[in-house]
Structures are given as structure tokens and as C-alpha cells.
Amino acid sequence: MSRLSNSWTMMKASAKVLRKDPELMVFPFLSGIAVILVTATFVVPFAVIGEGFGALENMEESYLGYVVGFLYYLVLYSMIFFFNTALVGAAMIRLEGGDPTVRDGLEIAFKKLGVILQYAVIAATVGMILKVLEERAGFLGKIVIGLIGIAWNLATYLTVPVLVTRDVSAFDAVKESASIFKKTWGEQVVGNAGIGLATFMLIVGMVLVSIPLFALAGAISPPLIVVVGISLFGGFLCLTLVSSALNGIYCTALYRYATTGDAGEEFSPQMMEAAFRPKKKRW
């Protein structure tokens, strides 16, 4: 509970950064558009090949499905990592006392385009391997593979900040991210869950409010239902963008404190000391 409480405190600190630079939400917005476009582009190949990687009739088509799946992961991760890099880069400028712009973030991402593509290849390869194993595993096997996927996500949680601040390869960035994670109590996990939990609770609240609103709109005028629906969709979209931006800021602050001991004026030393502590040695 103390870690969760600290995570809420860090989330509020992240919100202070976002209030200073609301343009940081542009990067999750662009990332979302890119994800939609990439997915739409791959819908036709997936439809031609068949539903799912393992539902194909012969081995040749299965291999083709794996190739298309890998390409989908590769392009998708490239877009996501590109805009995440831009977000983290801009957030890093703010935490260092600067005043970032959207252009600053995009310039950082373009400078790191080579290692971003390397990281996308690594992530796509891991994703495909886990996908293939999951399709061929039984019930217990799927649980184990799911845990492996969670471990991978945790180990790579700080990879993007490493890529932004260090001139290293994507493989070395992944190793450094895992190394930093091993030296902590895992506050990254609790903090990320805290932001996600706050977002989830707000979404639940909006859904509960929307039910009587839709009923009232239908009773007054049926066309008014469309207006209410559009308004709620806009609210959900804004909430998603804010949550993504907060998570990027939070990740940046964690990495900056872990490597420099200073996360910026928005994050107090006491707050960060509770986030990063060496693990106790085991006898």
C-alpha cells in the first residue's frame, strides 16, 4: 500500500509536468493514429492469408502468416517506439529545466531512428516467438508464456529513456534497462499500475454517468443521443492521451533519478528515494 500511495504521489507530480507542457499529449495522439493506419494496412493481408497464425490449411500458408505477422509487429513497434522516444525526449528536456516543443521531441526521435528500428526488430522477434509458442502451448503453457511476456515488458520498461540519453545499440539499451530494474524494488510496476488504475476508475465513472445521460437524451430527443455519444468519445480519447503522456513522464523521471539522482523539481528526493532502493541481499 505504501508503494501504491507513493505511485499516486508520483502520478500527481507527473501531472504537474504535463500542465506545463500539454503539447506532450500530441505524441500519444500521433502514435494512436499511426497504430490505426498500420493496423488498417495489414487487415487485407491478414484476411487473405486467414484468421490467426495457426488457423491456416497448410505449412506454406502458415509460414506466410508468420512473415506477415512479423512485418506487422515490426512496423507497429517502430511507430510506437518512435513517438514514445519523442515523448520521453521532450519530457527529459522539461525535467532538466528546459521548455520543450513538439518539434524538439520529433527531432530527438529522428536522430534515434536507427536504434528505434533496431529495438523494433528485437521486440517484433520476441513478440512473434511468444505468439507462436502461445498458439502451440496448452492451458498451463499459455500461463507460463504470459508470465514471460510480463517479465519482458518489465525488463524493457526503461529502454526508451536509455535510447534517448545514451549513444548505445538497442540490445545494450535493453540490457541496461533490465539491469536498472533488477537494482530496484520494482516501483515501476506499481507506479504504472497506479496510473492505469486511476485511468480505469475514471473510465468506469464516465461509463456509469453515460448510462443515465443516454437515457435522458433518448427521452428528450433521439438525435441528442449522437451528441452525447460524441462527447463521451471525446472524453475517453482525452483521458487515454493524458494517461499515456503521464506514463511517459513517469518513466522518464524514474530513469533520470536512477542515473543522476535528480528527477527534476516536480519530483522530490523523498518521493524518488521510495521509488528506487537496492534489493535486500538474500542469505
Describe what you observe in this structure.
By secondary structure, the protein is an all-alpha fold. Helix 1 packs across helix 9 and helix 2 crosses helix 10.
Distance between the termini: 26 Å
Q: Could you report the average pLDDT, rounded to the nearest whole number?
A: 79
Number of alpha- plus pi-helical segments: 11
Regarding quaternary structure, what we see is single chain
The backbone outline, from C-alpha atoms, is globular
Output the radius of gyration: 21 Å
The helix-and-strand class reads mainly alpha
Share of residues in strands: under 5%
Main sheet summary: none
Order of helices and strands: HHHHHHHHHHH
Uncertain segments: 51-61, 278-283
Q: Level of helix content?
A: over 70%
Q: How many strand elements?
A: 0
Defining key terms:
single chain, 283 residues, mainly alpha, 11 helices, globular
Write the layout of secondary structure elements.
Layout: H1 2-20, H2 26-49, H3 59-95, H4 102-111, H5 113-136, H6 139-155, H7 159-165, H8 170-182, H9 187-220, H10 223-260, H11 269-273
